[in-house]
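Subject: Protein entry, chain in single-letter code together with its fold tokens

Category: Structural biology, sequence-to-fold work with a learned token vocabulary.

Notation: Tokens come from a learned vocabulary of local backbone shapes, not from coordinates.

Start of record: The labelled sequence and token lines come straight after this line.
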Amino acid sequence: MSYECSQCSYRTSKWLGFCTQCKQSGTMREVPAESARSRSRSPMAELVPVAVDLAADEETRRWPTGMSEVDHVLGGGFVDGAAVLLGGEPGVGKSTLLLQLAAAPWLTAGVDAKQVLMVTGEESVGQVGLRARRVGAASPNVAVAAGRSVESVVDAIESDDYRLAIVDSIQTLVADSVDGAAGGITQVRECTSRLVAAAKRSGTPVVLVGHVTKDGALAGPKVVEHMVDAVLHLDGGDFEGLRFLRSLKNRYGSTDRVGIFEMTESGLKEVPDPVGCLVSGWRGQAEGTVLFPSVHGRRPLLVEVQALVTPTKAPQPRRSFKGVEPARVHQILAVLEKHAGLSFSDHEVYVSLAGGIKVKEPAADLPVALALASSRANRPIGKLAAWGEVGLTGELRSVGRTAARSEEVSRLGVTNVISPDNNGSTLIAALEQAGLLAAPSRRRTA
């Protein structure tokens, strides 16, 4: 007998409490030794090396999806034989997006138009049909099948009857030759391996829907993400109904691109210019508001940073932050008190990004600091845009994509900009330019 890790497939002749390769505990499972020997003796295809400059196959095509935001993330569309894994929180719109994608007009283009196969293991055919009618995706070019056998899905993919195959979801499929329940690590790995191999043999692109854990990571073994060619993630805030399609891995394109959609009653609607959704009501007339051109992938996205600072007599003033990292806001509060003399120890502090957007980049430090100081002083700063990283010593550090940020701000008509590249290298200088600091002799007593 031998033992195999259910997480990374590492094999050993003796049982161990943890896998020495992936360091996961309790993953070693006993497997028949005959299975290992027979697998090692199985015939393999002869290797045929080809010069890399001649390796590109002229018959390999890239199919535009007809949805510009999806094409933007994929790098131009689906590639023949590509395997794509799409993950996201429950109810975020994964199935809806793929259903609309399946019914896109690009499938009927050309003389070799074929249907799209959509295999559902979580819904019945009737339920998928009702949703298709609701979102306007009831197309005769979409074939829906309910089933959980990976063997039948592989046969359908290799039949060459479909241009695209969608499996919703990979956690519902079962391989007959593998023990374990659907959704288990072994089943997910085996089913993914077979579907990826079928896509490569037939040239039919395959999209796999994957569940996520409570931490937001894709469920199942990490090796699944290594098997596929592209890993996409759909997320977004509920307030404005925006959804963000991000590329975490893409063998055929860049990973720094983001597609933006809006969830409506009739499905997901592409939002090529989200400025109207996020800052349509921003006028810069209230204290504690600053415009921040964040960058999601390569795309600049204007976000309104809002701060509210109010006095309190509570022994422990409340701190509430939404859309920004709490640790960075606490750091900014300390820097403002240390270097600008602005004390927040007897004030409640609230910071939020309008629209439910989440930002992790350090470029948000400066707009958060300006918004906090503006609310602390009860002084509006007008139509102002800012970006820059704030250091612990009070210096401002440059961030990337400066040209793209400046262009997006100019497009909105905002001319008052504060950044490390054109307004000095200290937080004090930025606060003075915004009119939020008194004379230097009064800074420490503010």
Remarks:
- The mean pLDDT is 84.
- The chain has three domains: 1-42, 59-270, 279-445.
